[in-house]
Amino acid sequence: MDNTAKELIRAELNKHVLHSGSQVKSAAKLKVSNATVSKIIAGKDDGLGDAMWVKISKQLGMRLDQIWYHADTRPAIKLRGYFDDARMHGNVFGLVCTPGSGKTDMLDNYVKEEKNVFYVKCERHMTEKELLAKILQSMGIKSNAGTVSLLTSIIKERVDKYKQPIIIIDEMEKVRNGLLLLFIDLYNALWKRCGIVLIGTHNLRDRIELGEARGSIGFNEILSRLGGKFIEIPTPDYDDAILVAKTNGVTDTESLAFIANGAAIKNGVVDMRRVERLVHAWKQKQAELEDQQNEEAAA
Fold first, then answer.
1. Which of 54, 116, 255, 293 is the most exposed, fewest CB within 10 Å of its CB?
2. Could you tell me the sign of the dihedral formed by the alpha carbons of 85, 231, 233, 138, in that order?
3. Distance CA 260, CA 268 (A)
4. Percentage of residues of the chain with pLDDT beyond 70
5. Rounded to 5 degrees, what are φ and ψ at 30?
6. How far is Cα 203 from Cα 15, in angstroms, rounded to an integer?
């Protein structure tokens, strides 16, 4: 059993102990020894076999077959490369991803693995203060009091306390033009202090490039600060679908091909959301077959 599954079980076990009132009560309910519970919570569980982990997970009502594992697909590798560049050198990028590229999975994984990564997702009716407050919240500060200028200054002060910080702003194509212009202020305040990455669909790129072509105020400055262009992240393909399916437990060639073909959109491009749904359906079928076999063996 890998560390991801173990950490999920450990987190659930901690909750169970809290709700039970003590480790002793929790152990009794789970039908395992108190020593086993203590070892897992303390992280001193090297001697525990997979069978015990599986037993505890089932007693906790967990479905290990539903855990989703990150895979380094071509889009994921490209995204990581630009995130690392921005984080380590204080650079600024505008990245374009197609829907279903696996971007969210990559972002979640990057935030978990790296330090000082501050990630926010935009919403349609978000104001300037709300976006700045979300950035501060990602830094552990709950504050939306004060002016836009004051909140920007607080962000500036905070990033100076971190080593190689990066702010990743996702789905910025959803916001109004005035909020797009806030990027200019963030860039000016944080230049070389903090990496900044804007991520969106082609709509974000087209909107800013069209605004720049029409001479809309500030749009030429946005594009200039992004190095004059948006960078296209490659779309996932058949091999990426196979890699993700294998990483998440699919083993036989026939099932792998079925999933990759079922997730195809057109011209060799696949939708990673479809891959995830098909893999979960496969896992569910495997679990049902296993339960059926267990029942037959016990009969």
1. 293
2. positive
3. 10
4. 97
5. -85, -5
6. 42
Q: Half-sphere exposure of 243 toward its Cβ, with a 13 Å CA cutoff?
A: 16
Residues 6+ apart with CB under 8 A from 288: none
CA angle 229–232–237, rounded 5-degree value:
175
Q: Which residues contact 118 (CB under 8 A, 6 or more apart)?
A: 135, 138, 139, 165, 166, 167, 168
Taking only the tens place, the pLDDT of each residue in 157-194 is: 999 999 999 999 999 999 998 899 999 999 999 999 99
Taking only the tens place, the pLDDT of each residue in 74-125 is: 999 999 999 999 999 999 999 999 999 999 999 999 998 899 999 999 999 9
pTM above 0.85, yes or no: no
As a three-state string, the secondary structure of the chain is CCHHHHHHHHHHHHHHHHHHCCHHHHHHHHCCCHHHHHHHHHCCCCCCCHHHHHHHHHHCCCCHHHCCCCCCCHHHHHHHHHHHHHHHHCCEEEEECCCCCCHHHHHHHHHHHCCCEEEEECCCCCCHHHHHHHHHHHCCCCCCCCCHHHHHHHHHHHHCCCCCCEEEEECHHHCCHHHHHHHHHHHHHHCCCCEEEEEECHHHHHHHHHHHHHCCCCHHHHHHHCCCCCEECCCCEHHHHHHHHHHCCCCCHHHHHHHHHHCEEECCEECHHHHHHHHHHHHHHHHHHHHHHHHHHHC
How many other CB atoms are there within 10 angstroms of residue 278's CB atom? 20
